[in-house]
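*** Backbone structure tokens ***
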Amino acid sequence: MIHTDCKGRYGAPKIYFLLLNTGFSVSLKPVQRIMRKANIYSITIKRFRPHSNNKPVEAREKVLEREV
């Protein structure tokens, strides 16, 4: 019950490494398959939320077309 102990945050890669460290001989693909069959998914949090900018666009000089 690694998934419930970590409050549903761990996905297959972290559970796989925990199983390896505790002495179980298993690979990543079977862990993914078992989790998919049991409908166990990790909680993913989107860290960046883009915000709309309603400010008017400022006119700027064309720096690239400027002669030196």
User: Anything to note?
Assistant: Residues 2-37 form one domain. The chain has three helices and no strands. Residues 12-21 form the longest helix (10 residues).
